């Protein structure tokens, strides 16, 4: 299944970390999502999905700013954000990534960064608690998180290959057993709380950095466009890549 769009834009917005509004939205990223969606035309259905909007905020407390990367299949207009109390300076025009991504090939190695919310659905509840069946719970162990990302490389969604894998390394348990894990840095950013429709939701924020290998170029381009994992409206799922 290949749902890769023909256009793909990337915007880089530098936010004023001293702004009360910015600090509030960094603490409650669904509010940032709502602000960013104002850069796109009205949509009949769910706008984020219709326009393929993914974003990731990277605060820099030492410099008093935050960089937000916004990817979309429709070109946004950020004029409403500047001047004002939100951006440090006028934003650069969005970059069209489609041509660069068209040149991606199988077996190519790429550096990547992904901020994600690794979870699993409960199929068989413990203690016969049927209320938990089908609910999504966070993966807390590093090996579980690495395995989750490896699975997404094989199958992004059911029936949709992710189009990538990783170089593997051997690790040895205390009992001498050997297993393989991806060569990926995994950084726990802790719980992230956000409000949506009056409800307070908590997500487990994890940042992955490393080197991946493309196994299926078309599937990988679809993965880049659609993102990885749940909670995309809360700033998760944007996969950024660059040459090694």
Walkthrough of the structure:
There is one protein chain. The mean pLDDT is 90. The chain is globular. The protein starts with 8 loop residues before the first strand and ends with a strand. With 244 residues, it is an alpha+beta fold. Helix content is 20%, strand content 35%. The protein has 6 helices and 13 strands. Strands 5, 8, 11, 12 and 13 form a 5-stranded antiparallel β-sheet that branches. Strands 2-3-1-4 form a 4-stranded antiparallel β-sheet. The longest helix has 13 residues, at 142-154. Helix 1 (20-27) crosses helix 2 (29-37). It has helices at residues 20-27, 29-37, 47-50, 98-102, 142-154, 217-226, and strands spanning 9-16, 54-60, 65-72, 95-96, 109-116, 119-121, 136-138, 164-166, 168-172, 178-182, 184-196, 199-214, 239-243.
Please tag this protein with its features.
alpha+beta; four-stranded antiparallel beta sheet; five-stranded antiparallel beta sheet; globular; 244 residues
The average pLDDT score comes to: 90
Q: What letter string, H or E per element, gives the SSE order?
A: EHHHEEEHEEEHEEEEEHE
Largest sheet: 5 strands, antiparallel
- How would the global form be characterised? globular
Radius of gyration using CA atoms only: 19 Å
Low-confidence stretches: none
Global structural class: alpha+beta
Assembly state here? single chain
């Amino acid at each position: 299944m290949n749902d890769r769009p023909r256009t793909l834009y990337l915007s880089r917005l530098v936010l004023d970390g001293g702004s009360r509004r910015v600090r509030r939205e960094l603490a409650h990223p669904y509010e940032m999502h709502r602000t960013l969606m104002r850069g796109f035309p009205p949509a009949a259905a769910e706008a984020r999905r219709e326009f393929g909007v993914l974003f990731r905020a990277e605060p820099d407390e030492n410099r008093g700013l935050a960089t937000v990367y916004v990817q979309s299949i429709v070109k946004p207009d950020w004029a409403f954000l500047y001047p004002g109390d939100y951006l440090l300076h006028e934003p650069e025009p969005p970059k069209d990534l489609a041509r660069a991504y068209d040149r991606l090939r199988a077996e190519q190695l790429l550096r990547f960064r992904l901020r994600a919310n690794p979870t699993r659905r409960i199929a068989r509840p413990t203690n016969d608690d049927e209320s938990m069946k089908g609910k999504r719970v966070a993966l807390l162990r590093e090996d579980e998180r690495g395995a989750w990302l490896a699975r997404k490389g094989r199958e992004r969604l059911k029936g949709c290959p992710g189009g990538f894998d990783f170089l593997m390394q051997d690790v040895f348990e205390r009992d001498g057993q050997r297993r393989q894990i991806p060569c990926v840095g995994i950084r726990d950013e802790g719980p992230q709380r956000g409000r949506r429709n009056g409800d307070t939701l908590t997500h487990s924020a994890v940042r992955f950095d490393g080197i991946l290998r493309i196994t299926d170029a078309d599937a990988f381009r679809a993965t880049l466009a659609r993102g990885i994992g749940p909670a995309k409206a809360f700033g998760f799922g944007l996969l950024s890549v660059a040459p090694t």
